[in-house]
Write a structure and sequence with these properties.
Elements: H1 4-14, E1 23-26, H2 27-33, E2 36-40, H3 51-64, E3 69-73, H4 77-89, E4 92-97, H5 103-111, E5 115-118, H6 123-137, E6 140-141, H7 148-164, E7 170-174, H8 179-191, E8 196-202, H9 207-213, H10 235-244, E9 247-251, H11 253-267, H12 277-284, H13 286-289, E10 293-297, H14 305-318, E11 322-330, H15 335-345, E12 349-356, E13 366-374, H16 378-390, E14 394-397
Parallel strand pairs: 2-10, 3-4, 3-6, 4-5, 7-8, 7-10, 8-9
Antiparallel strand pairs: 1-2, 11-13, 11-14, 12-13
Helix pairs in contact: 1-7, 3-4, 3-7, 4-5, 7-8, 8-10, 11-12, 11-14
Length: 398
């Protein structure tokens, strides 16, 4: 089983080839959540993910054994970490990725010199194909999480967090297959036995949660936290999680979206869905961690720009920063100008306007005007509506 000495050996082996990333307090997030929140910025690694720690530790051991080629299955971050360090070490790397993998991650993996094979609709299907390639092409399979050397590499994050903040009360860690939390929990519990380690999964992919708690939550088809969208937890990681992790929590897609937007707006840092899972748990259950010194790992920053754009849009709507308003009025000259003037006087900005005559349920002499407005908050939206109504217009938010 994995021990502290394995993680310390990994730290010595990889220390000059990966970043000891910043671990900083977020005063604003601490105020929002009621806990003292510290963020480990693993999204600042060269491949924008913690995964290169474990991949590098494993590759260095394989090089010592004379291996010249490796294969792996990954939704993206393990692929990039493995490809990057395999290229540096002169190894052939073949990466099998699910067909729906983020194009950003696919292209970046190819950019690191790996041969990318898109296969299957899930991580499990990709892994089965990777194992077949390992046998047919005489490649060494590098598991994304269920490998002691990979877990030891990920565990170096725990060493760094507790070295920087030895009085942490809780660590809240995203869980997919379990490699990250297994490594960090092993290191943290050995250094500070009383520390609480809490895992976070999405409600759409609760495999480890089900395995440990004996529940039978259903599995979804996809998640914005694709980095932890794993259908089957590792055997080794499951044993370590059962022994070392104090609790597991589930968060929803909306919780993760909110956390992504907050990290972007407050910390000016971009994270992917899995990287925001820890903060999502704090936002969903603030009383659970109130008054505690909590360490979070921003595990990755590889998010598709179009997905990020959509998440920001959803976040702006939830925060009342974007509002959709419908105004019904008589179809007379100057009415649209009057409406837009009232909106401008209220301090809102018009993002979109749709002037609808034909496809409206109103009479032929009336018009339905749909507007998307940039506003300050929900109270400001109500102020805009009140101004329109006071001028005689029928205005609603929808």
């Amino acid at each position: 089983m994995l021990e502290l000495a394995d993680i310390q050996a990994a730290a010595a082996r990889i220390s000059d080839q990966v970043l000891d990333t910043p671990f900083l307090e977020s005063r604003t997030l601490s105020q929002v959540t009621g806990a003292q929140v510290f963020l480990k910025f693993e999204n600042l690694q060269f491949t924008a993910s913690f995964k290169e720690r474990g991949a590098l530790n494993k590759l260095l051991a394989l090089v010592d054994q004379g291996v010249r080629g490796v294969v792996a299955a990954s939704a993206g971050n393990h692929a990039q970490g493995l490809a990057h360090h395999a290229q540096r070490l002169g190894l052939r790397a073949v990466i099998v990725m699910p067909q729906h993998a983020s194009m950003v991650k696919v292209e970046r993996t190819r950019g690191f010199g790996a041969e990318v094979v898109l296969h299957g609709d899930s991580f499990d299907a990709a892994r089965a194909h990777a194992l077949a390639l390992a046998a047919s092409q005489h490649l060494s399979f590098v598991h994304a999480f269920d490998d002691p050397l990979v877990m030891a590499g990920q565990g170096t994050i725990g060493l760094e967090m507790l070295r920087a903040q030895p009085q942490l009360d809780s660590l809240v860690i995203a869980v997919g297959g379990g490699g990250l939390i297994a490594g960090i929990a092993t290191a943290a519990k050995a250094i500070r036995p009383g520390i609480e380690v809490v895992g976070v999964q999405t409600s759409r992919f609760p495999a480890m949660f089900n395995a440990i708690k004996g529940t039978a939550h259903g599995q979804g088809l996809n998640s914005i936290a694709d980095g932890i969208a794993v259908g089957t937890p590792g055997q080794l990681t499951r044993e370590i999680v059962a022994r070392q992790v104090d609790d597991l929590l589930l968060v929803d897609e909306g919780d993760i979206e909110q956390a992504i937007v907050m990290l972007l707006e407050i910390e000016k840092t971009v994270v992917e869905g899995a990287g925001a899972a820890g903060l999502a748990a704090l936002l969903k259950a603030p009383a659970r961690f109130a008054g505690r010194r909590v360490g979070l790992v921003l595990s990755g920053g590889n998010i598709d720009p179009l997905l990020l754009q959509a998440i920001i849009g959803h976040g702006m709507v939830r925060a009342g920063r974007l509002a959709r308003v419908r105004v019904n009025t008589r179809d007379n000259p100057g009415m649209l100008a009057q409406i837009t003037s009232l909106i401008g006087e209220s301090g809102a900005n018009i993002d979109e306007v749709h002037h609808q005559r034909t496809f409206s349920a109103l009479s032929a002499q009336s018009v339905e005007i749909e507007l998307v407005l940039q506003t300050r908050n929900p109270a400001h939206v109500q102020e805009v509506l009140a101004r329109l109504r006071s001028a005689g217009f029928e205005a609603v938010m929808y």
